[in-house]
Amino acid sequence: MSTSVDIPRKNALGRFASPVLLLLAMWVIQLADAVLPGSFTGFGLRSWDLTALGGIVLAPLLHADWAHLLANSVPFLVLGCLVAVEGARRFWAVTAIVTLIGGVGTWLVNAPGTLTVGASVLVFGYFGYVVLRVFAPGRTSHRILYAVIAIVIIAIYGASMLAGVVGVNSGISWQAHLFGAVGGAVAVFAGRRKVRSE
Asked: Is residue 42, in this structure, part of any structural domain at all?
């Protein structure tokens, strides 16, 4: 039987479906926001507003305009796929942890009433996860591979990630960037089982 050869191929493609579908949802929402009256951004995360806590979940899906969405799309897809290499379940777990920690941190630290939207909380969270994943329990061969990936990702995105926390312009939420990265760091160790090194 050849089923044992076909299953890994199917699983490999399925892993990357999750970040692609999540990005597609952001584009559909932005298109709907552009053609329907009003603006969806009002459903984002409004700091210190208890009636807007749903924005913790909704804010990463919403964007101020097309330029905002475009700026987030490529790094979201690249970093999201690197997280999804470990499987759809891990991708959604990391996404949930980053969304929660990034959202709560932003809600608490931002000035009261500040509205925050955008997938950059996830981008920074995935960056933190991919860079720190090398420290997670796992096989030595996996950790070496993750270290190589981390070095490449730091070389590509490191400067812009640092600037996104310490050198942001007015109107850009360094809080979402910082707490997104913190969420990614927490997600590295969440739910991990110890694995013997090879």
From this structure: yes
Provide the domain limits for residue 15.
Answer: 3-189
Say which residue, 166 or 108, is predicted with more confidence. 108
In the block, tokens 């500040």 appear at: 114
Residue 196 in any domain: the answer is no
How many domains would you assign to the chain? Answer: 1
Contacts 24+ apart (CB under 8 A), 132-137: 132/184, 132/185, 132/188, 133/188, 135/188, 136/188, 136/189, 136/192, 137/192, 137/193, 137/194, 137/195
Structure tokens at 79: 């970093």
**What is the pTM for the complete model shown?**
0.89
In this structure, which amino acid lies at residue 83?
V
55: in domain: yes
CATH number of the domain that residue 87 is part of: 1.20.1540.10
The reply to whether 197 falls in a domain is no
pLDDT tens column, 167-196: 667 778 899 999 999 999 999 998 776 655
48 by DSSP, 3-state: which? Answer: coil
